[in-house]
Design brief:
Chain A: This is Spore cortex-lytic enzyme. Chain A: It comes from Cytobacillus purgationiresistens. The complex is a heterodimer of chains A (about 290) and B (about 450). By secondary structure, chain A is mainly alpha-helical. Chain A has 2 domains: about 30-135, PGBD-like superfamily/PGBD (Muramoyl-pentapeptide Carboxypeptidase, domain 1, Orthogonal Bundle), CATH 1.10.101.10; about 180-295, Cell wall hydrolase SleB, domain 1 (Arc Repressor Mutant, subunit A), CATH 1.10.10. Chain A is built from 11 helices and 6 strands. Chain B folds into 3 domains: about 15-200; about 220-365, no CATH class; about 380-435, Nuclear Transport Factor 2, Chain: A, CATH 3.10.450. In chain B, strands 1, 2, 3, 4, 5, 6, 7, 8, 9, 10, 11 and 12 form a 12-stranded mixed sheet that branches. Chain B has 10 helices and 13 strands. In chain B, helix 1 (about 1-60) packs antiparallel against helix 2. The chains are: A mainly alpha (about 290), B alpha+beta (about 450). Chains A and B meet through helix 3, strand 3, helix 8, helix 11 and strand 5 of A and helix 2, helix 3, helix 5, strand 2 and strand 3 of B.
Chain lengths: ~290, ~450
């Protein structure tokens, strides 16, 4: 009986903490921005706040997604222009101070909407209830693609009441590639080279990209990968194994311009290669089990 | 009694297995036929496109008026690209069939260049007509060869799946009409090579600059290792592996890999033999948390570049992927951005260390350029822009255009609706060299819901 009482007590305390938590979040609003200078390309809580505040003042009309893209950039510059600040597109301390003075930020509202994946806005002078959109199927905090993303911006700043993660609902992509392109390439790299050292995997991804750029091969990522008999992993179905994070990173590195293969168009494993022709290609270098050639 | 039941069960089992096997067999056949049909379609489309190509080039030769030439050449370009994609669908990956693909790409490039040019001002030269005539003849030969193969395929009821099997078993020596036929096509094309394509074809394939602007003397393996240690910041006792490039490489380089004995982390880099410049560097590790901002990281990147002797660079793009910051720098000359000279850097957002570095483009193209004065003014250039676009920013910049030439342009950044565009107007003749829609963030598609 006593034990049950204790359990009850703990539960009640937990319940009270849970009730208080959002309140403390609101109290902390005034100093929510962290110390960082926010610049184009940044991702995270500070960006969500920046977008919300810019939208409150009517400068930003895009989606509040936590990614500092071009829309946010121009909004910030317009804000800096209107308020007589230096127009540099960077949210430094002065800009943030003035932004905080001139706008309100209802953090719990914004976070809640993002978590629910709703379409919503955060304009000043309008009832927030009316700015809630219908629940959306996509986006949201549980995004499968986004890694647990501890926002560094929070560190050292006042703790945010809720203990839950708030991930941005969008992500940066290298220009010219979609998440799906990256996924297909990660599949191919994993299927072809999962046992290889990391740079060997980057090199395989680079070969795919070199082929896309070459006159002798199809002009798209999927065209190159699914060209019959081009990759053994495609032929034997290993391409449909679920790639790991390493393969994905390797693809991103290759897309960002790293080419450990030395501009190779072919590679082969000398132990398993069946075609004698492949040996006639001029060889550039060997990484792991693979020989890369022109 | 027991025997009877046993026999009954067994015979049921046999019947079941037979039925299952039959089902599987039917499914397999259905899939085989499907794959076969895809190959057949690609192949017959290819021969058809080459037919069309031949005719189209022929008719452009006959054209007199410049105004009808441009659309006709554009059409040639379209057909080559379709033919090219058909080749890509055939199971020829391991057959040396790339000459034919290159040939198609060359016709495509030539016709594209000629089609986008203002032929009234700058008509086809005699050499270019000659080139066109050659292409016409070559297309005829390829068409002929392909038709022969096609004829055999149809007459003998040949299957592409057999080609697959023949190639897969490495048994290419056997009598395989399709493979032989394609080898003949390839030989025909190889015969032309690039020799008779005329002066207009110079620079048609992407130029390989081969680090020709690099200065300095050849370095030794030891010096390469020293350089690599400097970049990685690893201690002296790191495990070192150095290799020279293979014979097939266009330029000399050393591949150095260093392994930290404590953490087992590996740093890899390639260094040019000439001058010892870092082509790329990767330090592979997981970055689990973010402690510094993207802005701090960009300052770290700038610091790193300065320390390593890279000067006059402008931060052009920055983006955060998970807990890694990626930065692109381009060089600056007299306050003009030189886009072909680019360096990319990857900085970890946990400790601000360099994770990756790529200077290949920069090393291949960076040099002191003779940049001509713009002959039109900024106002004249901005008048060429779509009036719907709201210009937010402008500057002068050197870019590589579609024809792989460096041109000085006015660069305008502007918005149209929610999108941001980067527009390059040639500073000499006011051509719109490039219009890029800048990438927006991509929504994260939730695969949980």
């Amino acid at each position: 009986m006593k034990k049950a009482f204790m359990v009850m007590k703990v539960l009640i305390i937990l319940f009270i903490i849970a009730l208080l938590a959002p309140v403390s979040g609101i109290n902390n609003q005034a100093s929510a921005f962290s110390q960082q200078v926010i610049q184009h390309g940044a991702v995270g809580d500070d960006v969500i706040e920046l977008q919300s505040r810019l939208q409150y003042l009517g400068f930003y009309n895009g989606k509040i997604d936590g990614v500092f893209g071009w829309g946010t950039y121009w909004a910030l510059r317009n804000f800096q222009y209107e308020f007589g600040l230096e127009i540099d597109g960077l949210a430094g301390q002065t800009t943030k101070n003035i932004l905080m003075k001139s706008s309100d930020y209802n953090e719990s509202f914004v976070k809640e909407q993002i978590n629910k994946g709703n379409k919503f806005t955060h304009y000043g002078g309008t009832d927030l209830e009316k700015q809630k959109g219908p629940s959306g199927g996509q986006g949201g905090a549980t995004g499968g693609q986004s890694k647990p993303n501890p926002q560094g911006g929070n560190q050292g700043a006042a703790p945010k009441g809720e203990g839950q993660q708030n991930n941005p609902s969008a992500a940066n992509m290298p220009s010219g590639f979609s998440e799906n392109d990256i996924q297909i390439m990660a599949n191919a790299v994993y299927g072809e080279a999962r046992g290889e050292p990391y740079i060997g995997q980057v090199a395989v991804a680079a070969v795919i990209l070199n082929r896309v750029g070459s006159a002798s091969f199809p002009d798209t990522v999927s065209g190159v990968i699914f060209e019959p008999r081009a990759f053994t992993a495609v032929a034997d179905g290993q391409i449909w194994l679920t790639p790991n994070e390493t393969a994905r990173q390797a693809v991103l590195d290759a897309i960002n311009g790293t080419d450990p293969s030395g501009s190779a168009l072919y590679y082969f494993n000398p132990n398993t290669a069946t075609s004698p022709w492949i040996w006639t290609r001029p060889q550039i270098k060997k990484i792991g089990q693979h020989i890369f050639c022109k | 009694m027991l025997k009877g039941i046993l026999i009954g069960v067994l015979s049921l089992g046999v019947a079941g297995t037979a039925f299952w096997g039959y089902q599987e067999h039917r499914e397999k056949n259905a899939i085989l036929i499907n794959a076969e049909n895809n190959y057949q379609r690609a192949f017959h489309e290819l021969t058809y496109q080459v037919d069309v190509l031949h005719d189209k080039i022929g008719s452009t030769l006959a054209m007199n008026s410049r105004s009808s030439l441009s659309p006709a050449l554009a059409d040639v370009w379209r057909v080559t690209s379709e033919a090219h994609s058909d080749v890509g669908q055939l199971p020829l990956g391991l057959l040396p069939f790339n000459k034919t693909e290159e040939f198609l790409a060359q016709i495509g490039e030539f016709s594209y260049r000629a089609a986008v040019r203002d032929l009234d001002k700058d008509p086809l030269s005699d050499e270019e007509y000659q080139t066109l005539q050659n292409l016409y003849g070559q297309a005829a030969d390829i068409q002929d060869d392909l038709r022969k193969v096609q004829h055999m395929v149809l007459k003998n009821d040949l299957r592409w799946m057999d080609v697959e099997t023949a190639l897969a078993s490495g048994n290419e020596t056997g009598d395989n009409t399709i493979i032989d036929g394609f080898k003949t096509v390839e030989k025909t094309v190889e015969g032309y090579d690039e020799t008779d394509l005329g002066p207009a074809f110079v620079n048609m394939q992407k130029k390989d600059e081969n680090f020709k602007y690099l200065e300095g003397k050849e370095i030794t393996k030891k010096e390469a290792v020293k350089e690599a240690k400097k970049y990685s910041g690893l201690k002296k006792d790191a495990k070192v592996r150095v290799e020279e490039n293979g014979d097939g490489s266009n330029y000399g380089f050393y591949s150095v890999s260093l392994e930290d004995p404590d953490t087992k982390l590996e740093a890899n880099m390639d260094i040019t033999k000439k001058g010892g410049y870092p082509i790329w560097y990767i330090m592979a590790r997981e970055v689990k948390e973010q402690n510094i901002s993207l802005n701090d990281a960009s300052n770290k990147a700038v610091e790193f570049l300065k320390e390593n002797g890279f000067k006059d660079l402008d931060l052009f793009e920055s983006a955060q992927y998970d807990n890694v910051g990626v930065f692109t720098f381009v060089s600056k000359q007299d306050d003009m951005r030189i886009y072909p000279d680019s360096i990319k850097m990857k900085i970890a957002l946990d400790d601000g260390k360099v994770l990756g570095f790529t200077a290949e483009d920069y090393l291949k193209s960076h040099h002191q350029r003779e940049i001509p004065e713009p002959s039109i003014t900024k106002e004249e250039a901005s008048a060429k822009i779509n009036p719907q676009v709201k210009v937010m920013e402008d500057r002068l910049a050197v870019i590589l255009n579609d024809l792989d030439q460096e041109v000085l342009c006015y660069e305008f950044m502007g918005t149209l609706g929610d999108d941001t565009y980067r527009i390059f107007i040639n500073s000499e003749n006011g051509y719109e060299e490039k219009v890029e829609k800048l990438q927006n963030a991509e929504p994260i598609f939730d695969d949980v819901v």
